[in-house]
Amino acid sequence: SKIKLPWITFVLGGPGTGKGTQCQRISQTFGFTHLSAGDLLRKEMSSNSKDGKMISALIKEGNIVPSEMTVRLLQEAIKSSQSCKFLIDGFPRCNENRVAFEKIIGVEPLFVLFLDCPEDIMVARVLGRNEGRLDDNLDTVKKRLEVFSNLNLPVINYYYEKGKVQRISALGTVDEVFEKIRPLFSSFSR
Ligand code: UP5
Ligand code: MG
């Protein structure tokens, strides 16, 4: 029998650009399963284990959680799902994350959706969210922006050089942004 490799799209962009919001729309419309690395880590964090304490300390500072932990959570989620189409939201966040994913999961993304947004808009969206996230305060947002440009942009550049990046402006309403994203996915179905 043929083994189907999962289809994977990485959805990247700075804090508050709308990754989670757009992934929800894409999954509703195109049947992709949405895996938010941040949500998986926050769930693990609330488990109150030793790992949980480490995760919350790193998230509070806007730093990146060790690759093995995030990749393990993503691997478990992919394995336990019936789906074969995944949106991976907010991962890989650094080249080390990317290499660990390649090594363990062994699947290249179809493409990378990069939500691009000016920093002042990102800050306003994060601070306006008000969901009680421990990293949604001005100090941590500044750190998240710094980590994004120092460590995540190099991952986007890596895929850009491979011709795999679809850059979409995150400006405009949720509907307007989704209408720009829609054509990227309408060609993929199975
Ligand atoms: N909003 C959305 N779209 C809008 C629009 N077009 N117009 C107006 N408002 C819009 O949106 C943010 C807010 O803006 C919401 O209120 C929304 O309604 C509004 P959202 O869709 O939540 O944006 P998103 O890009 O998902 O923002 P988020 O804050 O989740 O991004 P981050 O990348 O900062 O957070 P994430 O959860 O991915 O990671 C958090 C932390 O976890 C990281 O800093 C890191 O410490 C850790 N982490 C890792 O270590 N490794 C990982 O692999 C992943 C996370
Ligand atoms: Mg999010």
- Major sheet size, sense and barrel closure: 5 strands, parallel
What percent strand? Answer: 5-15%
Give the C-alpha Rg: 16 Å
Please list the strands of the largest sheet in the order they lie side by side: 2-3-1-4-5
Q: What structural category characterises the helix and strand content?
A: alpha/beta
Q: Low-confidence stretches at least 5 residues in length (pLDDT < 50)?
A: none
Shape from CA axes? globular
How many beta-strand elements? 5
CATH topology, by name, is Rossmann fold
CATH C-level category: Alpha Beta
Oligomer: single chain
The figure for the number of domains is 1
Residue share in helices? 40-55%
N-to-C CA distance: 17 Å
Can you name the CATH architecture?
Answer: 3-Layer(aba) Sandwich
Question: SSE string, helix = H, strand = E?
Answer: EHEHHHEHEHHEH
**Helical stretch tally:** 8
Q: Would you tell me the overall average pLDDT?
A: 95
Bound molecules: P1-(adenosine-5'-P5-(uridine-5')pentaphosphate, magnesium ion
CATH H-level name... which superfamily? P-loop containing nucleotide triphosphate hydrolases
